[in-house]
Write a structure and sequence with these properties.
about 30% strand; alpha+beta; Glutaredoxin; 4 strands; four-stranded mixed beta sheet
């Protein structure tokens, strides 16, 4: 069963686009599925994440923010 991850992003965020691409490239190899969740126009998510995006989560556990931490991702899905 693949691990379920969430990637919180903003529209027009180049760091978000970079992390989304990196995560997409690793998803098959590391056996996980990522739900992309835009925080734009969602007051609750904007309050939680603000300008800290992108944020990669597995459940309530943050794997990394701003830049992909491949080692942390591997540890989280292993």
């Amino acid at each position: 069963m693949p691990a379920q991850l969430s990637l919180y992003t903003r529209h027009g965020c180049h760091l978000c686009e970079d992390m989304e691409q990196a995560v997409s490239e690793l998803s098959t190899e590391l056996n996980f599925i990522t739900e992309i969740i835009p925080i734009d126009n969602n007051a609750e998510l904007e309050q939680v994440y603000g300008h800290r995006v992108p944020v990669l989560m597995m459940g309530d556990n943050m794997i990394c923010e701003y830049f992909l931490d491949k080692a942390a991702l591997i540890q989280a899905v292993s």
